[in-house]
TrEMBL record:
Residues 18-232 form the Histidine kinase domain. SMART domains: HATPase_c. It comes from the Bacteria. GO terms for molecular function: kinase activity. It comes from Fluctibacter halophilus. InterPro entries: HATPase_C_sf, HATPase_dom, His_kinase_dom, Histidine_kinase_KdpD, Sig_transdc_His_kin-like_C. Pfam families: HATPase_c (PF02518). This is histidine kinase. It catalyses: ATP + protein L-histidine = ADP + protein N-phospho-L-histidine. Gene3D superfamilies: 1.10.287.130, Histidine kinase-like ATPase, C-terminal domain. Its EC number is 2.7.13.3. It is an enzyme of class 2 (transferase). Keywords: Kinase, Transferase.
Amino acid sequence: MDKHQTPGQIDFSSVLAAAVHDMKNSLCLLRQTIEQLARTVDPTNQKATAHLANAHYEAARLNTGLVQLLSLYRAEMENLPINVDEWFIEDVVEELISNNEVYIAHKNIAVTVDVEPHLSWFMDGDLVTLLLNDMLVNATRYASSEIRLHIYVDAGLLVIEIEDDGPGYPKNMLDATQIAMPEYDISKGRTGLGVFFARLIATAHSHGDKHGEIVLANGGSLGGSVFTLKLP
């Protein structure tokens, strides 16, 4: 029992964490049901496929939000514990595309992947995959017809870029990456929490005096949003 907790007092933070974990399990079953349903729908039925695509997007956002809450609870808003191991980047990308293939197909988006063969990196693959999944889902949501993943090594850093041909990031998201982490206000809502969590994952990865970072920009080769993750 926490030293500040009196007998019989409910530890609300622990109850919340348990509830979020339970909701995440239910949401996982819901996402599987959406994907199974999507495979039975006539692809020419545009109204049905549009509804399914929206359901997939919202379920993915909820899943990411719940995982973020659990991680922030465990980190107690100070730092994020990470489990670093060697990961093959091609496997990470394959899982990323596989997790979202139904949504990508229903949005009729062409995804191009350019990754250096046999590339591996030491990182927390689970957290990085969660971060990239959130960015890919958002890119799919706003892309017009094309998304590009470009992954390479530059100056001792693993660089992962996700570009789309959509309208680009709004100004408040671009500004959010310039705010110092201790001064960051996550009460800005879903967008604020998403950017904060992405930065938290990136900066938790370090090697020597180098720390990971994210960069949000507009333009790139497709003219839309450009998300960049750099890991030492």
